[in-house]
Each structure stands twice: as structure tokens, then as C-alpha cells.
Design brief:
The structure is a homotrimer of 366-residue chains.
Chain A lengths: L6 H6 L10 H7 L1 H5 L22 H18 L13 E6 L5 H12 L3 E6 L11 H10 L4 E6 L4 H8 L3 E7 L5 H14 L9 E5 L6 H12 L3 E5 L8 H7 L6 E4 L2 H5 L4 E4 L15 H8 L3 H4 L7 E3 L12 H4 L6 H31 L1
Parallel strand pairs in A: 1-2, 1-3, 3-4, 5-6, 5-8, 6-7, 8-9
Helix pairs in contact in A: 2-4, 4-15, 5-15, 6-7, 8-9, 8-15
Chain lengths: 366, 366, 366
């Protein structure tokens, strides 16, 4: 949580890749290079794991974005496959139900020609009570080079990363972080906003931020890119965010409010969050009907926003609760694009982490 | 449900492929052509989806049969694989438990070198209550080119087909339809009956037709091929079929009866249907023991039939209920052949639908 | 259970592969040969199935070990894949939850370029009550060449083998057998013990042997290799083993005791078994705490053993119950190695069985 962001450099550059000194970037973004194994890539990625986005500097975020551009070009081919990760075992260990994140990583890994092993916690020995530490050791011993994991306990991927010899990618841990989601959101916004820049743009995260790993990871990336970020929802679902905003951790500032009209006024982007129906029992939330009436993203509320407002949702949606059905399919909604960009972003992440790992191996060998 | 069947043409032709004017058929049935990607195939298939068999004309049924012949030849090779669907993402979304249909589509897709993604509803975000529409949109955005789905609600694949940009294959919807099962049944019958013709053959579907998508889809294909079709079972499990038979929808006629002896007399084919044990609770069915005594397919009952009668069952069987164990393994039983032919038929369907899709794309591009 | 072991021949040979007369062995253990399809291999393996290890002679055990050496070399390559099983369908049918065995077979099969189909009983038509016989027939008809199965009923793979036309590999059946586990344990021990020999070595299996298929299969392999085997645990969990030991079935003798100190004294190897928490209800076991106090493998108890004692556990572990956490990660523990060797052993087994099957086919064809 100590990432230093040099905003001046990025702000002064009009280019989409303001890191000319890094020789790897231009090459990583050209398509033919992606076909070569990552061992031969001079990429400047230095992280072994992807646990959260708080550790990523702005140049690193740009590198992910540029690599994702290259992966989008791969996806546009008649056969959207490259041999970059051939022979690499990517194990996907999910302790929570998921379609889009699990399948997105699976498709991304297969597009890079990796071998994919799926482990769903409910049908595995995990249900016999084996500790996470032992499970991770076992998965490594079974041949996994990269481990994508989702776990209900915040911080568990950090524990896994201490043990696992390869790369750990956090596919969502408790309320804490969902880094690949924040990166695909960032990529989607940049491709939609004029000039591709978030600088000074008003971005609203609307809903249950308290229980949302999506909100927490997006706070890091959106503030790193210079957005004017607003977190909005019922006050019971914003606990702790005011303090965070006030501290301005690592120079990142944002506004916290329960006033949905103030938040949406002239907003450039609105990201509605999923309301977990189970939250009702906790007493933190009124009825779903009342939530929809007071905070649901409707066409009426959107009239307050910038006419070209970008509407986002991480999915799966409760239509008619946090987002109206006609808003979800509005031309200004990029919800489906988020899913498609998710595959490209995850291809980029797997690719960059595999390259970092290969570099590390070489250093050890030298 | 408006398929016009020109029986005169088909009846006048003694050949197994009575569509000489269609240039694609002969080539589609020769093995080498299957090795080429479907983009280069001049196939005459014009359907984008496979939702039910009611929309298939007799020449189209012949095309499926001929393509299945080619796929049988592929399956007989030492390495039963062709590159036809390389780079194609086939997503299998099943909301109900299944072994044979799910695995059959998976093996078929892999034999054509497609990439397969499995989504079981119980372990997906579907269990979080996401709507089918959103799930289908998400699956397409994740890169699926073809969607094989099973769903407990009749008609849901039609809804999916309205949204999905690629091809939807119905793997069974409620009591409504199971088109690939009817086509594999047809293929199996043609390979077993002398001359490969169903014309005038007495075919009996025996059991719980009321709750059976297998029965409903078979009614379309068997009548289209000119069979003398009998639907037999307890009257409570035949509700609605008498009216359907009397209307003779789209020129298709069949006989409905509860008299099992009359039905089996001189039968050329008997297809026993699975009795769902859960049906007891509905009061529509007596005890399993009584059902077995009155309608179970036993050796004794089969003596009534043609000595060369063909015995079928879509599986999974309740042996000793709708079919006696010794009948299931009788030399006249083709139950295992049905399963094997299922893989070949599904290869043919995936292949034909991929070709139709490629043609559609080309037209759009032109 | 009639395997004849010629100990004199093996004992007189100092080499790790004391079967010079078998032309296949040397070649099977050299890496390049593994790259060729098994059809061209002159291997001497004559078993069609792997149901238990009791049927394996000492030369056959040596052949598995030698082939595993070759597979370890494959696993050490940058891309750990060989085309040996290309076009072979390996279906993995598990009626019990499992991570390590299921994934180990899946990775092993994929490393040999096989096509893998996973069927979990809970989500398949097996849950509709289909008989095992029908399920196996269906899986074969769907194209499976090799069937890896785990089932809660002892002996069920033998039933499957009577029906299935390809090779059946037992991945664990009830309390009866877990042959691939015993073989990976054997391989791990040989690579750790000086000289690679078990002859006269004191090996202790500690825990709940009564309910353990791992114990039963290890008894066969360890006695076949000449180990001085001790089975130790609470007397309620050793029922039947004294009689077995006294009979010395097939010339195999071992010691049964509840005296943990006597068992561990000067032990060369200790294999702790998993305590199933469900066993408490049966009244056979005191509380977990009492079990841990009286039979748990602790550093203190290990002081009794040979200073270079090898510590094993088949996993998943209940740390703090049958094994202390610090013992599990002790340098003398080979628990993680067991998992890695498991992939190599299963590659060897799939490879040998595929070769036997190809030979059988050729004979039929000739």
C-alpha cells in the first residue's frame, strides 16, 4: 500500500503509453511478439504475484493496459490463440461460486495455450477440512506454475503467495480485493472516455462498498489515474470509507456521501455494485425494494449525470434492484464490454506474470 | 413448427441421400472434407441454431444423417480428431445434472478440436440468481461461439437464441424438446433397419410421454421419416397427445393408446422411456412395481413384436422398472449404439452449425 | 492375490532394474522412447487394468519404477509434455470428493497429450440412480479408452473392469485398495532410502489402518519389496490385520501392534494415516485429542526412530491430529515429494496400460 504515483510525468504526456524509457512496452504491445514465448520478452514487469492493485505504479498500470491492447488484437483473429504459455499449468482454485471470473481466467489461459486445471472447493478435499497452506503446497507439487484463486477470507492469497513457488493471481478475496476486475474496469473506461484519460473525470461507485472487493480495488486504480472519485451508498454500507478518504492513503483522495443526487450530478462514470441479498439479514440494509427506490440506478437518476455518462456493473446483476433493466442495456452501458475486456486483461496479466517468473528463474540459474 | 415435408420426393428415392441437387452433401459426407475448416465447406445447412427438430425438413434430416456418416468414419480412426472447429469456443451450460448428453457434446466438440468450457449451474453465479438473459450475454462476451444448454424451463433455449450472437444448441429444455437425442435415435434406427428406411415401420414410444422431451422431439423426426408411430403408456401420462395426434400437426399423424399389447403387436421398434421416480408424488403414476407389471418392457411382452424388433432407451435406465435387465442387454437392444452414435451426431451438428455461422459472417462481411 | 515373488533374483541384483532379460524395460526408461506412441513400444507390461497392487510381481513393480524415472525426466523439461497418448480419451469418474488424486491423474493424462473428461458423481446422472454397470457401459460408448475411477464401495472397479472394453485404473475403492498411491509411496521411498532398497528396512504404517485403502495397498508393495513392515494404531482400528499378518498371505509377513513406542523404535520410515473425523461416531476411536496424544506423530515420538527416518502421509492431513505441524514440514518429511511423484507414477501407469492395450488390439487384429 505504498505505491508512489508520479502524476506529473503521466499528466504531461499526451500519449497513451507515457513510458518511453521502458524498452519492453512497445514490443509487448505489438502483436507478433505475443506469439513468442514470454521467456524471450524484455518486459519490464517486476511483480511475481497479482494480489491487489495497490502495489502497481502508474507506469505499471500503463504496461498492463498496453499489453491488453495486444491481447485484444489476438482476440480479434479468426483463431484467437497464441502459444505464449504452452506447457504452463494454470490451476484455478475457487472457494466461492463464480461464472464470469472463473471462465474468464480459463478462456484467457487457454487462449495463451496454457493447460488449465479447475478445482472447485465444494467437490475437492478442501471440503475435508485441509488447510489452505496444505492445499497450496499440494497444488504446486501437482505441477501448477500459476495459481488463480478466489477465497472468502480477506488476505488469503497473501498467505498462498508466501508458500506457492509460482505466481498467485487473486481472483477475489473476501471484501478485500479483486485486482483483475479493477484492471478490466480501468481498461474499459480508458477505451470509452474521450482521449482515454481519467484525469479529473467524476467517477461514482454506487452501492454496497462496505462488502465490496470490487470497490476497494477500484479505489486504488481510479485514484492512481487521477479520477475525481465518489463513493456513494446508504451510510451503513460506507463504514470506514470516510476515514480512508480523509487519510488520503498514498496520496489518493476521494469523496464519500450518501447523497445520490449530489454524487450523480455531472458524473462521467457510474459503477453500480451488486447488492448481496444475504445482507438483509445483517440489518445493514433496508428491504431490496427500499434500496432500489433510494439508490437504484434508474434512467431518471441518470438524467443528473453527464449526457455521455458511462454505466458499469461488475455483474452478476440484480436487475430492478441496484440497476434498472433499461439502464443495463442502455447504449451508454459498457457492462458486456467489461466482460470481453476481462478476458483480454487476464491474458495480459497471465502473460506478464509468466514473463516475470521466467526472468526470475533465469536470474536464479545465472 | 411450419416445416413442409415433401414426402413424394423422398419416398420415390431409394438412395440414402435423396438430395442430388445439393452440392454440399456428397462432399460433407466424404471424410477428407471434414478435415478442412467449415469456412471452406459449401454445405447447404441454413439454420443458425438447433432448438428443436420440428423446423427440419426431410432433406435437412438427410444432410444431418450423411454428415454423421462422415463423423463415424472420423471416430473409427486411430486418432479420432479433425481440426474443423479449431479456435472455436463451445460453452456447455447445464442447469440440470447429466452425464451422457453433457459428456457427449464435450467429446464431440473436442474431436473437432474446439475449446470447451463447462459451466454447471449449481456451482456458478447462476446460483446467485442471475437471469438467463444476463448469463447468456455474459457467456457470449467471454468468447463463446457456440452454446450448448440444458434448462428445466421449456422454451428457454429460444430465449437464449434471441440474445446469443452465435449458435445455440438445445441439450434438453423442460418437457419440450431434446433435438440431438431425436437425431441420434433416427441415425441409430436407419443403421439398423433393413434398407435404412423408416417408411411404414411401426415404432412404439412406451412410457411417460407426458414429461418427456425425448418423446416430443422423436414424434417430429419419426413422422417426418414416414414411420407408423404409436405413443403408449398409462392414460394419465398421455394427456394432450391424443389432441396432438388428431390435429396431425404439419401433416404428422400418430396413434395414441394405453393398450400395450396392441401397441407392441408386430412392432419394428420399441423405445422405452425413463420413469422419473419423482413422478410418483404427483399422483399421475401408480407405484413403480405396478408400472413395471403393466407397462415394463419385458421379454414376454416383446414376443408380441416383430422378431427383429429394435429396442431403444435414451438412458439413464431404471432397470426392472420401464425395461427389464435382460431386455436392456438383448442382442436386439441398440442402447449402447445410441450413445456412440450420439457423439457422431453431435459432431455433425456442431460442424453444420459452425458452417452456417461462417457463411452468415461472410455474407455480412460482403 | 496370487502374485509369485521371486525374491532371490531381485535380492541378488544390486542394480535398480534387475530385469535384464526384458527387452522393453531399458527402452521404456530412456526418455526419447516415451515421445513415441505406445503402439511402437516393446513394453513387457501384461496387465490390462490396474485394480490393486496384489497382482504385481516384483519385476513388474520394477518396470513401473523405471518407467516413472523416465516420466520424471519428462516433467523436468521446460514443456513437460509428450505425445504418447494423443487421441486417447481418459475419463475420470469420481464418486467421492478428491483434489490430489483426481488432479494428479488429470495432469498426468494431459502431460501425455490425452483428452481428459471429468465426471463428478454428484453432478451427473449417477445421482439419478443409474447403476454402475450402465454408467460404465455409457462411458465406454461415449469414447473412453481408459477409465480412472474412485468409488466408495470396495471392489467396484473389478465390476467395472468386467464390463469396460478399455483399461480401468482404480483411483481408490472403499477401504480396499489405492494402487497408484502405494506405487507413488514406493517410488518416493526408493528415491530417498540409501541404495534405493527397502530390503530389511523397518517401515511403520501408523493410524487407522482398518478404514484405509492406502494401508491395504501399501502392505502388498512394501512386503513385496522386502520391507520389515509394522502396522500400528489403536487396537479397535487394527481389526483383522493380526489374522492377515499371521496367515502371511502370498508369503508376505508383517507385525501388528498397538505399542507406538515399539513400532517407532529404529524405524526407517513412518507413514501416518489420515484420521477421518467421521469415525468418532462409530465408537471405534476416542476423541481426536486423545488420539493425537496417544498416536499422533510428534517430534518427541520421532526421536525413537532412526535419525534419518523418512516421514510420509498420503494427505490430506489433519495437522495436530495424526501428525504434528512441525513434523509435516520437517526436512525428513517427503509429503510434498509424494504428490509430485504421484504425477510421474500415474503417467507411467497410463503409459504402460495404453501399451498393453495396443498390444492386445494388435493380437486380436492379427
Amino acid at each position: 500500500m505504498t505505491a508512489e504515483v508520479d502524476r506529473s510525468e503521466a499528466a504531461s504526456s499526451g500519449s497513451r503509453f507515457p513510458i518511453p524509457a521502458e524498452p519492453g512496452v512497445a514490443e509487448a504491445t505489438s502483436v507478433p511478439v505475443v506469439d513468442a514465448p514470454p521467456e524471450t520478452q524484455p518486459v519490464s514487469w517486476r511483480h511475481r504475484h497479482l494480489l491487489d492493485v495497490d502495489a502497481l505504479t502508474r507506469p505499471e498500470l500503463e504496461l498492463v493496459m498496453g499489453t491488453t491492447d495486444a491481447m485484444r488484437e489476438v482476440l480479434a483473429r479468426p483463431i484467437p490463440k497464441v502459444p505464449a504459455l504452452r506447457g504452463t499449468n494454470v490451476t484455478i482454485l475457487f472457494y466461492e461460486a463464480s461464472t464470469r471470473t472463473r471462465v474468464s481466467f480459463e478462456v484467457a489461459a487457454k487462449n495463451l495455450s496454457a493447460d488449465v486445471v479447475n478445482i472447485a472447493a465444494a467437490s475437492s478435499s478442501v471440503s475435508k477440512g485441509e488447510s489452505l497452506v496444505d492445499t497450496v503446497r499440494t497444488i504446486e507439487a501437482l505441477g501448477a506454475d500459476m495459481l488463480v484463486m478466489r477465497h472468502p477470507v480477506s488476505g488469503s492469497p497473501y498467505l498462498a503467495a508466501e508458500i506457492f513457488g509460482g505466481a498467485v493471481l487473486n481472483g477475489g478475496d473476501g471484501w478485500h480485493a479483486h485486482p483483475s476486475q479493477a484492471l478490466l474496469d480501468l481498461y474499459t473506461l480508458r477505451s470509452r472516455l474521450p482521449g482515454g484519460s481519467l484525469d479529473g473525470r467524476k467517477v461514482v461507485i454506487l452501492g454496497d462498498s462496505l462488502h465490496s472487493r470490487v470497490a476497494r480495488s477500484n479505489i486504488w486504480t481510479l485514484t492512481a489515474m487521477g479520477a475525481d472519485l465518489w463513493i456513494c451508498g446508504p451510510s451503513t454500507l460506507l463504514r470506514g470509507f470516510e476515514g480512508w478518504a480523509a487519510r488520503g492513503a498514498a496520496g489518493r483522495r476521494f469523496t464519500v456521501t450518501s447523497d445520490v443526487d449530489a454524487a450523480l450530478r455531472d458524473a462521467d462514470v457510474v459503477m453500480a455494485l451488486r447488492i448481496q441479498k444475504g445482507r438483509m439479514a445483517s440489518g445493514l440494509l433496508p428491504s431490496l425494494r427500499e434500496y432500489a427506490a433510494r439508490y437504484g440506478l434508474t434512467q431518471e437518476r441518470l438524467r443528473n449525470a453527464n449526457p455521455d455518462v458511462v454505466v458499469m456493473h461488475p455483474g452478476p446483476m440484480n436487475e430492478g434492484v441496484e440497476i434498472a433493466a433499461d439502464v443495463a442495456v442502455d447504449p451508454r452501458s459498457v457492462i458486456t464490454e467489461q466482460v470481453t475486456n476481462g478476458v483480454a486483461v487476464r491474458m495480459a496479466l497471465l502473460y506478464l506474470l509468466a514473463g516475470a517468473r521466467a526472468g526470475e528463474k533465469q536470474e536464479r540459474g545465472a
